Amino acid sequence: MKKSNRIKALVPGRPSLGSILGGLALMVALGGSAAANLPGTQTVNSGDIKNDNVKAVDLKDGSVKDAELGTIVVRTATTALNDGASGRATATCNAGERIIGGGGEPQQQVSDFISQGTHPSDGGGVRTASGNSFTHWNTKGTNVAGTTATIDLISYAICLQ
Fold first, then answer.
1. Is residue 103 part of a domain?
2. CA distances from 96 to 39, 107, 119, 131, 137 (A)
3. What is the pLDDT of residue 40?
4. Concatenated DSSP letters of 98-160
5. pTM of the complete model
6. Which residue range is the domain that position 108 belongs to?
7. Are 131 and 137 in contact (CB under 8 A)?
8. Residue 56 lies in a domain
9. How many domains does the chain have?
10. Does residue 85 fall inside a structural domain?
């Protein structure tokens, strides 16, 4: 065999149609398609998603309307603080509701009230660590001795039904 024929035998020419189609079939078989199990085109329904896997960044702005989230309700609790007393008011969402916020304050306009904070908790009055679920909202305060006989301390739990 001549030297020029040996070089041509080592350098392949254009691939055949069969080689291209075979390679493409192999890639599809090995890689699959991200939407292969989704019914329809450009659609995803709740059966296609694992629980707790959709994050806010995955949603288009305005794609979820307020009414689709549920009804927001406010639950309250009041505790009477006698002159010189400290205490806590704890508002709780009903079973099946999820707490999404809260707050608290004295119901009367008084100058001798000291706020000791407002925060979510798991029900024991202890501040809940970030990332944990909570069911209650606590408001703490002190009625400083001397001028106001009783102060009503109110706590608000904002709940999603």
1. yes
2. 32, 28, 21, 19, 16
3. 61
4. EEEEEEEEESS--SSEEEEEEEEESSSSPBPPTTS---EEEEEEEE-TTT-SEEEEEEEEEEE
5. 0.60
6. 72-160
7. no
8. no
9. 1
10. yes
